[in-house]
Amino acid sequence: MARAMNDSRVSWPAEIPASWNLIRIKDLAILKSGDHLSAEQINEDGPYPVMGGNGLRGYSFRFTHKGEHVLIGRQGALCGNINYAKGPFWATEHAVVAQPRRTFILRWLGEALRALNLNQYATASAQPGLSVEVIANKHVPVPPLDEQRRIAAWLDLQTGRVDKRLELLGKKRELLRELKNSVIEDATFRGLNADAAQRESDIDWLGAIPAHWAVVRLGSLFREAADAGIDGLPMLSVSIHSGISDKELEDDELDRKVSRSEDRTLYKRVKPGDLVYNQMRAWQGAFGAAKVEGLVSPAYVVARPGTAVVPTFIEYLLRAPAAMEEIRCRSRGITDFRLRLYWDEFKNIRVALPPKDEQAEIAAFLDRKLSQIARQIALIDRLEALLKEQRKAMIHEAVTGKIDLSAYEPQQPREALAA
Fold first, then answer.
1. Pairing mode, strands 139-142 and 82-85
2. Helix spans in 78-193 (H)
């Protein structure tokens, strides 16, 4: 027999089971932001966890709350996030703590709030934020307490299974990324012939190299180019993940990645084969050998190759973890996110250089091998996205009564939180 449903008279959810009530969040719980704690007061370890809008931020020697609570992220692009805290903890001003006004099951309330998708109510600004008052006046469908228990227990079981699969996918992705780094380093530092005679490079971060390779400065292979931009060329960007783009960026990408100007002569012109890098993210591998003519931000460096080098080989080489660490050491700035690799430092980096035909062979090998790894990572990304959608749908169906769990028998009953 189908479950009787009533019109909820609100936009979400459209209908609820006849035995449920629709109640404002502020009638279920008192919502209050946490207290400020400076970065200097947050430690890597300590007796009490510090909970921010996106979960654990570190530890403190003081606490603001005790017991079990639902936390709602209040600021930032991910505001509306739902987390749980237990025991003594410090809640920062970026987290909204829900204190119970009436008896309910904690996990049920947290997942009902998650299904509400509170992020949609954030103010549109450079730093999105949620108003506590706005959250408090939203409605959630409230089942009887016993059914809350069943919903919470069922979600524990079902989302736990999904989370285990997500964890396994995450581990597989990390292994593939480690494999990618290993393949790049082996090919660009040691070559493709495992039997080649080796010699010491006298460069700490390179170690031993094939005996027939030369050790050269990048400044002997490239010269800095600063050709003014012209109209009609695509605007390109350099990614730490995929190198340089080969087509015009979309408007939203342009807004995020480059400082825009209508005067395209202010940009730098790049030609096919130029090695381009983002000064601020070079230490993270933001290098790319251009495939098309285009324009890049004036904050980028354009290195024009000579005849002795295959730029794609150097791109791969400079993305090896050991090379990125060398670049980080040569970059200037107060903190990591202010580091810049200037041309004067770039040109003095010494690398091991195979003969040109061998450079091309290694670059072609890495094109093929890394493409295979990228396809496997993309498959993991798609599976992960599907599982997250499945998890989201599961929660929505359970907390809105679309799945009838009134007869579900959990193995371990959950305790209710009372006001």
1. unpaired
2. 106-115, 132-136, 145-190
Distances (CA, A) of 254 to 4, 6, 182, 245: 51, 47, 32, 12
Give CA–CA dist 47/152, Å, rounded. Answer: 29
Contact at 8 Å (CB) between 50 and 59? yes
Confidence (pTM): 0.83
pLDDT value of residue 173: 97
The SS3 of residue 118 is: helix
Q: Prior bond to 144 cis, omega within 30? A: no
Is domain 5-162+382-399 annotated with CATH 3.30.457.10? no
pLDDT value of residue 253: 55
pLDDT value, residue 418: 61
So what's the pLDDT on residue 241? Answer: 86
CATH 3.90.220.20 domain range(s) in the chain: 5-162+382-399, 192-353
Check residue 401 and give left, alpha or beta (phi > 0: left; psi -120 to 50: alpha). Answer: left
Parts of the chain with a pLDDT under 50: 256-258
Residue 304 structure tokens: 């024009």
Mean of per-residue pLDDT scores for the chain: 92
Report the CATH fold assignment for 192-353: Adenine-n6-DNA-methyltransferase TaqI; Chain A, domain 2 (3.90.220)
Contact criterion met (CB below 8 Å) for 258 and 244? no
**CA-to-CA distance for 155 and 16, rounded, in angstroms?**
18
Provide the 8-state DSSP code for 212: T
